[in-house]
């Protein structure tokens, strides 16, 4: 299964995927390309480190969504990779119907809460401030509803007395780094050869 990773930030989840691949824990999945919508994103430095092509793709003209010329660039570049799976690993843009249709059923996202609780931005902060005792992370299929697609798997994280927002974030990120590669491996093994 050919995997394309899209990310906007430092790339810790992409790094977890690539480390799992390096260790033989990614099933039949293989990362073939990394794309970022930010020219200085840390995720791009993972490419040379792991021997995977990594490139900035201009998302213009919009700042928070992928539409118009930017969407066309992404559709062409990702389509050329012939992906079996497109993984959103901290990709901070809303995807529109043409993109969703082009890769229907093949786009997954990692979200830092136990969906359907705390969708959208600042999910860890939302959970921390709400007073819940358990939060976590979710891998789900991407649909037109932001953070609303079918859930593939979740990992639970206890919010302990004495946790700070920073310590909770560290625990959620550790759970993400285990969950996302495991889901990719499982999907790759379930896919037709």
Task: Describe what you observe in this structure.
The relative contact order is 0.18. The chain starts with a strand and ends with a helix. With about 190 residues, the chain is of the alpha/beta class. Helix 1 crosses helix 6. Helices cover about 35% and strands about 25% of the residues. It has helices at about 10-20, 45-50, 70-80, 95-100, 125-130, 165-190, and strands at about 1-5, 30-35, 55, 65, 85-90, 95, 105-110, 135-140, 150-160. Helix 1 (about 10-20) links the parallel strand 1 and strand 2 (about 30-35). It is built from 6 helices and 9 strands; from the N terminus they run βαβαββαββαβαββα.
Which features characterize this protein?
193 residues, alpha/beta, seven-stranded mixed beta sheet, two-stranded parallel ribbon, 6 helices, 9 strands, 23% strand, globular
